Amino acid sequence: MKVLHNLAILGLLLVFSFMELKAQEALTLEKALQYAETESPDIKQSLLNLTRYQKNLEAQRAALKSRFSLDVNPLNFSRSRMFDSRVSEWYTNENLQTSSLFTVAQPILITDGTISLNNEFGWQKSLSDANDSESKVFYNNLYLNFNQPLFTYNRLKLQLKELELNFENANISYAMQRLNLERNVTDYFYNVYLAQMNLDIARDEQENTQTSYNIIKNKVDAGLAAKEELYQAELNLAQSKSSVQDAEVTFENAKDQLKLYLGMDLYTDILVLADVEANPVNVDLEKAIENGLSSRMELRQREIDIETSQFAMIETKALNEFEGSLNVRYGITGDNGNLTQVYDNPTKSPSIALSFSIPLFDWGERKARIQAQEAAIQAEQLNYEDQQNEIIIGIRQAFRNLQNQLNQIGIARQNETNAQLTYEINQERYENGDLTGMDLNLYQQQLSEMKVAYAQALINYKIELLNLKIQSLYDFQTNEAIIPTELYINEEK
């Protein structure tokens, strides 16, 4: 029975170990980027913003099509006491009416006018005690109406153009968010990798410290070393255990930050797999600057800002302006007590109305607002020029950093090799009793620092190469330019 009990416990442990192993997900940088493309909260927020502008543009385009409407007044009853000045008598009038109005309205984009076809149909009963008369009649009023603003800007065109620019700007912001996503995912991913590496190094440190402790303990037990050495070895071992615990906490925190940014389940355990070897890439600085100036989406955003400020100028100039309105209407009206005879004797009803609004004096309001908007346009033009300079400086800095990181990689690689050889030599001296535990611990820490520094130099090179790619919109690893429109949502596969 005891054997069966032990086997059952062993089986359960194996099952739980398998479930825990299955729950751990191996994550490469490419897989993390693919995950973030669809699950990242930042990219989802950008998509929602893009959708908002897209739907606003679709709504505006739909509003330019013919609009059909039907207004129905099923009941309208009134009774009033009125005075007839012709005969100097008061009389009571009752009126019962029901009607409907059907309208087809078509905005005219090219002129900002509106043409509409209207048909009003109804029935009316009227009773008056002035002459004891009663009237019951069907009526129909069919007319075509045209309204055209004069001497002012085309508001329909301007509004549509503004929405188109807003949508383009949102698309650009989404594309830029995708590029920033790649940079941020890379940063978070390598933070986890470094934390994972620090944990491995701390554990190796603990194993080496444990080995050193066992050696010195055996020597002390044999009377070949002083107890002070054992006390120092115990202190070193305690410090190494504390370092492992600190590294574990840092590692778990880094994993949580990565999972949060990727939009992953926070309870999924991950293990990052990274190739940090950095192969030198030939970079043409002039080509990077040229491609950056011709392709960077921030420049197009500044151009959109300039266009938007010019639209604001058009609206500003329309303040207190001379403007007019033309309204032309033509229709036929018929009425009869018999529904089928409504148009037996129709009445033509043409009308035309022309009106003007003439500003006389505004105390300089319009002039001041125009000057303020002119200053705003100049500011946007300066922003465009500043953006160009920032792009050039950013690419230059990324290029210099990239060259510097190549040198740092060589230095860090040599430092790690020297630290490894130094540690091995001094470990042998420690085993022979020629070196104290405190001194050996210093060499151990130096080796750990050099390993981390070498890995950090490799990662820094990869990050700077990615930064140059984002700054110049050119991938020098594949020698291919990044086409901005390929990052737009409407180009996604």
UniProtKB/TrEMBL annotation:
One of its GO terms (molecular function) is porin activity. Its main location: membrane. Transmembrane segments: none annotated. It is found in: Cell outer membrane. Keywords: Cell outer membrane, Membrane, Transmembrane, Transmembrane beta strand, Transport. GO terms for cellular component: cell outer membrane; efflux pump complex. InterPro entries: OMP_efflux (IPR003423), TolC-like (IPR051906). Belongs to the outer membrane factor (OMF) (TC 1.B.17) family. This is TolC family protein. It comes from Maribellus comscasis.
